[in-house]
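Q: Can someone sanity-check these two? First one:
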Amino acid sequence: MEIIIAEPIGYCYGVERALNITYEALKSKSDNIYTLGPIIILTFFLMTSGSSLR
């Protein structure tokens, strides 16, 4: 089976935007940053599911 990887590969716009907002918040003078949930849901899902994914 041949696997073709599209160019360019990377995060979708929503994930990229969420990360950019987070990085900008980290650069601010605020000591604490709070979110109402995980910044990237898929990452949270993969971390909590672990090897149970098949």
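And here is the second, same format, sequence then tokens:
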Amino acid sequence: NKWFTRLAVAAAVVHTIAGLKLHYPVVGAAARRELAAARARLRNE
């Protein structure tokens, strides 16, 4: 019955995570400029 237990737990986890309705954060223009500057500094090292 291990396979059924694993199936039940996996289904519960998937259901719970789907219910969280997660999404990537929105990055503003200022943060994009800062990230681009940091990326440029790292490339120049």
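A (reply): Looked at the second one. The chain has one domain: 2-43. The mean pLDDT is 96.
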